[in-house]
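Please, structure for the following, as C-alpha cells.
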Amino acid sequence: MPPPSITEVRTPQSRCRFALAWADITPPPGIYHRMWGAAKHERATGVHRPLRATVAMFEATDAEGLSPDTRQILLALDHCVLGSVEHEQLVRHVAEVSGQSKETILVVFSHTHAAGLMGLERESLPGGDLIPGYLRAVAGQAAALVKECAGRLTRADIVYGQGRCDLAAHRDFFDEQKNQFVCGYNPGGPADDTVLVARVTNESGDVLATIVNYACHPTTLAWDNTLISPDYVGALREVVEQATGAPCLFLQGASGELGPREGYVGETAVADRNGRQLGFAALSALTALPPAGTLFQYAGPVVSGATLGAWAHEPLPANEAQRKQLWQLSRWREPLPYRPGRPTVEQVEAELKQFQADEDAARRADDSARAADCRAMAERKRRLLYRLSQVPAGEAFPLQVVVWRMGDAFWVGVQGESYSLLQTELRRRFPGTPIVVASIAADWGASYLPMRNIYGTGIYQESIAVVAAGSLEQLIESVARRIGTEEMSSSEKK
C-alpha cells in the first residue's frame, strides 16, 4: 500500500488591522555624510535615490482602545543607525504628537551606509550644522505618518512566502598574507539566502503593501561614494512596487556577518543591480502566494486522456480562519553581560590624540597613505567614544526586544547587529512557522552580537562588541522560549 496521501496544503497567514504610510526623508545635499573612515569627503554632493520613512501599524482584530498590548508600530528609516540620544528624541516626539504609547513604537533601520551619519555630536563638522534641523524634520514627518496610519487602520490579511537570493555573502575573510581578519567577501563562508516575503491585502483582495525581509548589509556604496542613497534597498523597492502597485516595506534581517558579494564601491549602478537582484527574487516568491483565506486542496480525479488529479483553492474552515487572528505580544529588555576589559573613555581619548598626531606627522612627511590610515583610525576612535558615552551603566546591556504573534507568524524586532544565527536557528527550531526578523532596531548602543566562537579572533564585529561572548546565544534562547510558550499556549486552545 502507498503511504497516506497529503490532500491539503496550507500557506501561513495572519489577520489583523493594518495601515502603512511612507514619506520622503532625503536630507539636503551638503549635509554631513562621512560614514566611512576611509572617505575623503565630509559633505554629500547629491542624491542617488531618495530615502524613506515608512510606518507600518499592526493591531489585533479585537482590540479595544489604544492598549499597548494590542498594537505594534514599526517606524522604518532609510538610515544606518541612530545614537541613544537621537533615538530617544525621535520616539518621544512621535509619541507625544501622535498620541501613541512610546512602548508601541519600534524604530528599525534599513541600515544603508550611504545615508550619512546623523549624530548630533557631528554638528561642528562640515555640513553638521544641518543635522539638528534635519532630525527634527524627520521626527515631524514620522509623527504625521503614525497619525495617518492610526486614522485608517483596516482589516487585512497577510500571506507569507519564502524565496532564495544569493546577493548576501559571508564577509568575515582571513587575509593570509597580512595574517589578519578583514571585513570583506569570503567565498568560502556560509550565507543565509532566505528571502521572507509577505503580501498584505484588504477584505476586497486589494494589495495594501508587500514586505521583504532579507539579511544583507547595505554596503554596496562605500568610501568613494559621495551621494545620499538607500543603497540596494531603493532599487529593490522600485522593482517590487512597479509590479505590485503597492508600497514595499524592507526589513533588514540579522546580517552581522553578511554583505553584498560585490560591495565597497562608488558606482551607484552596482547598488541598483544588487537591488534588482533581490527585487526579482522577492517578486518570484510574492507571485507564488495563494489568495488569502484559502488552502490548496485535492479536488478529486478527472478522467481525461489520463486520470488526472485536480487541486483547487478553497476557503479556510471557519475555525482555522479564526486562528489567523491570534495575537500575542511580548516586550522586554534582555540583560546581556558586558564583555570584560572594555576600554575606558580616558584610554580611547589618548588613542584618538595619538592617531591625530600621527596623521599630522604623516602629512608633514608627505606620506598620504599613512595619513589616510591614521585619519580613518581617528574616526573609529571618535565613534567609540560616542558609543561609550551612551552605554547604560551597570553590569549588563538592556537589549530591547519585541516579539509578537499574528496568526501563523511571529515577528521579532531586536536591537543590535546580530549574526545571522539569530534567524537561522529560530527558523530551524520552528519549521514551517514564518519568523520575520527585523534587526538594527532602536539605537545602536548594543553594537554587534557575534557568535560565541567569533570572540578572540580580532574580527571587526567582535572587536567593537560591547557585550560578552555567549550574548547572541542567550538572546536566541530567550526569544525561542517566548515563541515556544506562545505556540504551546495557542495549541492548547485548539
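DSSP finds ten helices and 23 strands in the chain. Residues 345-390 form one domain.
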